[in-house]
Design goal:
Elements (H helix, E strand, L loop, with lengths): L1 H21 L9 H6 L9 H4 L6 H9 L3 H6 L4 H15 L4 H4 L11
Length: about 110
């Protein structure tokens, strides 16, 4: 168990070191808030809680991409929102356009 925690810390440090070369400014996405607003699920309301306003753009991108599920929960996201956010960030890392990858939440099931 201890080895996996060390591995995660190593991955986070490696990401922070390469973040300057990764700064994802593609198309209409110029900030982490813009990325969250493309989600089609209202995730931009959590941007103020997740991303420090006084931080630089590089620090905001690093904070968003290294946020854990527990940190997203502290920001007030539900389980479904956390899973969707992490999924959308992974798609963005892989180079997918978030506007095309994002989809609205499925409608509630009717109980008859």
């Amino acid at each position: 168990m201890m080895g996996s925690a060390q591995f995660r810390i190593h991955d986070t440090q490696r990401f922070l070191l390469t973040c300057s070369s990764f700064l994802p400014l593609t198309g209409s996405i110029q900030s982490p808030t813009a990325l969250l607003s493309l989600s089609a699920r209202g995730l931009e309301s959590y941007a103020a809680k997740l991303l420090p306003a006084e931080a630089s753009a590089k620090e905001q991108w690093a904070k968003l991409f290294t946020a854990s599920s527990a940190e997203l929960a502290e920001a007030g996201m539900s389980v479904q929102e956390r899973r969707y956010t992490l999924w959308l960030l992974q798609k963005y890392r892989q180079g997918a356009d978030p506007a095309k990858a994002a989809h609205p939440a499925p409608p509630k099931k009717k109980v008859r």
